[in-house]
Amino acid sequence: MDKRPTGKKLASIVIERLTGIYGEPICTLDDRDDPWRLLVAAILAAQCTDERVNLITPALWQRFPEIEDFARALPVEIEPYIRSCGLFRNKAKNIHLAARFLIEEHEGVIPQTMEALLAVPGVGRKIANLLLGDSFGQQAIVVDTHCGRLARRIGLTEAEDPAKVEQDLMRVVPGNSWTDWGHLMVTHGRAVCKARSPECPACVLSDVCKQGRAVLRKAGQ
Known about the structure:
Layout: H1 7-22, H2 35-44, H3 50-63, H4 67-72, H5 75-82, H6 88-106, H7 114-118, H8 125-134, H9 145-154, H10 162-172, H11 178-191, H12 210-218
Helix pairs in contact: 1-11, 2-8, 5-6, 9-11
């Protein structure tokens, strides 16, 4: 086999090939156009699929149309609408606290800096980067389970900690593609590079992916 590309060259190849297959990358949460609703949806998506979140949020928005409605409601009033997302009690509490915090500290407006977003209850780097990238047009890499898994398999990081994975990717992924990168990883991770059964022989990255090359070599391909 030819020498495998690494670093920035490898990252660029990944972007080019996956974009060629999947087209323009987009956030898979339906409420990506509204910063507050995207924040809520992202909280709900923890240990839950985006598909499930998209199924339950229409009824949630109907009951609580504005951020003020979430702030006035008790968490127990939010819980029935999000029960199927798992961890619903903690999520309802965080959504309520986030609404109150944003109203008290930011007049109900979602801040547009990492530092300010991390102060919001229920918001970590993953959600903050999602908001920065999809709501505010900044370039930010969202490291979820798909992104971390694929980055390690492809050979762009060896880190397990999401913050370290993010730093490693920021060094090699082109700065104008950080936001797209996270969405491409989600799409490819669901379609081909699955957690338990990656389809390496059918993967467009198999000749440049660290794990893919190993799998094909073992299979004699």
